[in-house]
Amino acid sequence: MRVVNPRDTESALEWQLARIGSAAWQEWSLKFQRMAFGYANDSGWHDPADALQWLDHHALLHEGAAPRGALVWYQAADRVRVGCSLGSGRLVGPLPSGRIGIGVLDQLSTDYLWSDPHFPFGH
Q1: What is the pTM of this model?
Q2: Can you tell which superkingdom this protein's organism belongs to (predicted)?
Q3: Rounded to the nearest 10 degrees, how much is the dihedral formed by the CA atoms of 27, 32, 34, 37?
């Protein structure tokens, strides 16, 4: 499925990389991704686990290497989190440490899936 967001992939990644080190987004990984892709208002999902369940129900999740700009859904520190793939097994977003950073997916979790940056209820 081709997804068109208010902010394109490279602009969304630039927005995220500009916030590396910030602790302002702790526990808000879904909101961070929604805002990165240009959606100012709520995504319609309660949290990343709710979003993951919706995406699974609609067959929008994929296994394997996440392409650049894909949302990566992973389990870490007893909760579902979401980051944005930089490619080559790296992602950016609020990490379990509580700060925005670049993480290596294999070091964060062995349990992950990816989806296109799809916010069906965002506006």
Answers
A1: 0.93
A2: Bacteria
A3: -160
